[in-house]
Design goal:
The protein is mainly alpha-helical. Helix content is 73%, strand content 0%.
């Protein structure tokens, strides 16, 4: 799906709004086919069944179409800078989160005061928001210093 999406975006035969429409149609069709196929071959993430791939791919195409429309077609870009930082060092932050840095523990230390003052139902949300803020702050620092992990 990613290759087809990339080829569609590189193709100059279609206008940007036409590309958005193609992505939306492909996303909706993938969802429908994935759900229909799921009645025969269950949607199972752990096994990455073909029905799961179609279903998850459909949602991915729909989200991609939304972001493509907002950022590229409409030109509303300022809000998306954190995603640029993430994209520039996504492998590095993934590796850091899976063995090098305990972001959840760090968030717990930094957000302890807020967590103590809120209802217990919000504790996980606050802690994971802290994780995201810490990671994006690190990614921003790396981006500003032009430090990029390349493989």
């Amino acid at each position: 799906m990613g290759i087809f999406t990339g080829e569609l975006l590189r193709n100059n035969r279609y206008a940007m709004k036409g590309k958005t429409a193609c992505l939306l149609v492909a996303g909706i069709l993938s969802l429908i086919v994935g759900m229909a196929w799921g009645t025969v071959f269950p949607v199972n993430k752990n096994m990455w069944t073909s029905s799961f791939v179609l279903y998850a791919g459909g949602w991915s195409l729909l989200l991609f179409a939304l972001f493509y429309f907002v950022i590229d077609v409409k030109g509303i870009k300022k809000w998306s800078w954190p995603f640029v930082w993430l994209g520039c060092n996504s492998i590095l932050i993934y590796l850091a989160a899976h063995g090098l840095v305990n972001f959840l523990s760090t968030s717990g230390f930094l957000m302890e005061g807020i967590v103590k003052r809120t209802d217990a139902r919000w504790h996980d949300a606050i802690l994971w928001l802290g994780v995201a803020l810490i990671q994006f702050a690190a990614l921003y620092g790396l981006y500003k210093r032009k430090i990029f992990l390349k493989i």
